[in-house]
Amino acid sequence: MTLVSGQGTNAIIVNFNANFTTGVLCVTASNVCGSTSPSCLVINSAPAPSTPSAITGSGYGVCGLTRSYSVTNVANVSYTWSVPAGATILSGQGTNAVSIQFTTSFVSGAISVVASNACGTSNARTKTVYGKPTKPTVINGPTQLCKTDTVVFSTVAVFGNNTYTWTMPTGINILSGQNTTSVTVKVSSTAVAGDVCVKAKNSCGNSANLCLAVNIIPNPLAIGTITGNANGVCNSTKNYSVVNQIGVTFNWTVPSGATLLSGQGTNAVSISYSNSFTSGNIVITGTNSCGSSTTASKTITGKPAIPSTITGPTSACFNGQNINYSCSNSTGATSYTWTIPAGASLVSGQGTNSIVLNFASTVGNVLALKVKASNACGTSTNKTLNITMLSCPRLANDEKSDIVLFPNPAKDELTMSWFTDTDEDLLVTCIDILGQQLMSKNYERSEVAAGIKINTSNFSNGVYFIRVVQGDLVRTRRFVVKH
Q: Tens digits of per-residue pLDDT, 460-470?
C-alpha cells in the first residue's frame, strides 16, 4: 500500500499493489498544542467475482418466444450476457436478469454470463437452450385393449407453443385429437400389439417420441369338443375338459341331478352324477375382459350306451352246442340283458357281457340275438346280431369217439390222435362250418396213433370239423380255433 498524495490534509490517494491482501490505515490530527490519538481502518483485498450461479429459465421450446433468464445477484458485481444466433437480449444487460427474444427458426445454442468487479471477471456460466420442445413426460391410457374398443390417450403439455403428433400400432385408428394433447382412437378387428407414441412439435423442430406399449386381447375362441364320458355316468364322478385358452375364464353349467365338484372357472372340471340321473346337457362358455365365446354343450345320459358290437359266429350249425357270444363293454353298465331267439337256448352268462348258446333250429333260419346294457339310471336300446343256421357234418353218436383232439380250442396248431384195433390207412379231412374242405390227406395207421399235427395258424376264429374215414368206420369231431 503506497500513499500517492494528500498527506497533511483530510483526504489522501493510496495505491495497492497486486500482492496486497490486508493492512491498517491510520490518521492523527495535530496543531501547535498537540496531536490526537490515531484513528485506524483495517483494509482487506477484494477478490474477483466467483462464477455466477446456475442460469434459471426455459431450456426447451423457446421458439418464437421472449423468455427471462437470471442468476443469483451479488452486490457490487455487474453481469455481461451473451446469446447465440437467433436470440436477442431485449433488456437487463449488466444485471443479473435479462429478457431474451428467440426467432421462429431458432434451433439451439448457449446463453452465457460472466460477473465482473474492480478486481476482475469470473469464469462464464452457460445454459444450452433449444427452440424445439422437450419430450413429453407421460402418456395416460389403457395398455390392454379389446378389438372394437374406443379409447382415449392423453399427455401433459410441455412448455412452448406446440402441437402433438400421435402414432398408433397397425389397426388402431385415430378418430379425433391429432395435434393436441388428447386423442380418441378406435381399435379395429385387425389391430396388433405395438407402441402408442407422441412427440411435441413447433416451427423450430420436433421432440423425441415418448411411447406406451399396448397389447391386444383377443376375444375368446370358439370352444371345440368337450371331452369326457357321455353315457353311463349314473352314480359316478366323471372328468370333462376343453382346450385351454390363456387369459380366458370358463363358466360351466350342469344339468339337474349333476353336481360340479371342482374346476369352475378353468378348462377342466369334475362332475358327480346321482343314481337317478337321466339325461341333460353340460354347457360351457369362455369369457375374458373383451367378451365371451360361443357356447358349447355335450349331451349326457345316465344309462349306458348301446353295446357297440356283438362278437361270435354269424353262421352256426343248426344244432350247434356251446357256442360263445359276447358284446363290447358299455361304460357305466352294471348288467347286460340278452334276448335269446327261438331256436336257441341259453347255457350260461345272462346278466354279463358274455354268454354260451345251444342251437336247435332249422337249416336256413336266421336268428336275431339281442343284448342291451343297464344300470340304475336306465337301459340302452338293443344291439342285434343275425345268425344264419347251417347244415354241418354229423358228429359221432359216441362222445367218446376214437378221435382225440388237443388243444381245443386250438390256436396255431391242432394235434389229432386215432385209436382203433384195425391197421387200415385213414383219410383225414378238415371242414369249416360252411362245409368247405380245408385239407384232406391219407395217413398210415402208425402215423396217426402217435398224433398228427394240423397247422391252424391261417384259420380264422370259429368252429371246424375233423372227419376220419378208416374202412367202413367214419368219425367226426368238432374243434374251435381261437387266436
A: 998 999 999 88
In DSSP terms, 14 is beta-bridged to 3
> C-alpha grid cell for residue 71?
442468476
What are the pLDDT digits (tens) for 66-82?
Answer: 999 999 999 989 999 99
CA distances (Å), 391 to each of 160, 319, 479, in order?
110, 8, 16
pLDDT at 45 over 80: no
Instruction: Decide if 83 contacts 89 (C-beta within 8 A).
Output: yes
On the question of pLDDT at 105 being above 50, the answer is yes
Cα distances (Å, whole numbers) of residue 314 to 325, 456, 481: 10, 20, 15
- Give first-to-last CA distance, the chain, whole Å: 134
Confidence grade of residue 284 (pLDDT, cut at 50, 70, 90): very high
Contact yes or no for 126/111 (Cβ under 8 A): yes
Residue that is written with C-alpha cell 345316465 in the block: 302
What average pLDDT is seen over the chain? 92
Angle at 391 between CA 390 and CA 392, to 5 degrees: 105
Query: Whose CA is closest to 220, among 271, 170, 284?
Result: 284
Cell of 214: 399396448
Residue 418 CB coordination number (10 Å): 22
Q: How long a stretch of residues is the chain?
A: 483
C-alpha cell at 306: 348301446
| Cell numbers standing for residue 15 | 495505491
Q: What CA dihedral angle connects 159, 164, 170 and 171, to 10 degrees?
A: 120
Long-range (24+ apart) CB contacts under 8 A made by 68-75 are 68/97, 68/98, 68/99, 68/100, 69/97, 69/98, 69/100, 69/111, 69/127, 70/96, 70/97, 70/98, 71/96, 71/97, 71/113, 71/115, 71/125, 72/96, 73/97, 74/49, 74/50, 74/115
Q: Which three cell numbers stand for residue 458?
A: 391261417
Q: CA-to-CA distance for 459 and 455, rounded, in angstroms?
A: 8
φ, ψ of residue 12 in degrees (nearest 5) = -130, 165
Greatest mean pLDDT range, 320-329, 374-383, 459-468: 374-383
Q: Closest by alpha carbon to 405, among 474, 454, 440, 462?
A: 454
